[in-house]
Design brief:
four-stranded antiparallel beta sheet
Length: about 100
């Protein structure tokens, strides 16, 4: 069984036991989390799609930890002007483990 969930402005296709890196969440490490924004649920050829979400469906997760992604570098340059600028950014994330999908 799989589900498509929405969290942090992004959509993820998940199954039980998956570990995801999502946008930072306020929950503590080891705590439980319930995601109710389930866009679709499927098992084999049977797929339920919501508009916008499937009513009564939820995904139970456990927070594994928090961290920082790899640094993303941006380089700006204007030719013939002597202007260069290097910018780095590290995005915060939360790792979650999918424990159960309830339809």
């Amino acid at each position: 069984m799989y589900a498509v969930i929405k969290t942090g402005g992004k959509q993820y296709r998940v199954t039980e036991g998956d570990i995801l890196k999502v946008e930072k969440l306020p929950q503590e490490k080891g705590s439980s989390l319930e995601i109710t924004d389930v866009l679709s649920i499927g098992e084999g050829g049977d797929v339920k799609a919501g508009s916008p979400a499937v009513s009564g469906a939820r995904v139970v997760c456990e927070v594994v930890g928090h961290g920082l992604e790899k640094k993303v570098l941006t380089f700006k340059k204007k030719r013939r002007k002597g202007y260069t600028k290097k910018i780095g950014h590290r995005q915060n994330y939360t790792s979650i483990r999918i424990k159960e999908i309830k339809a």
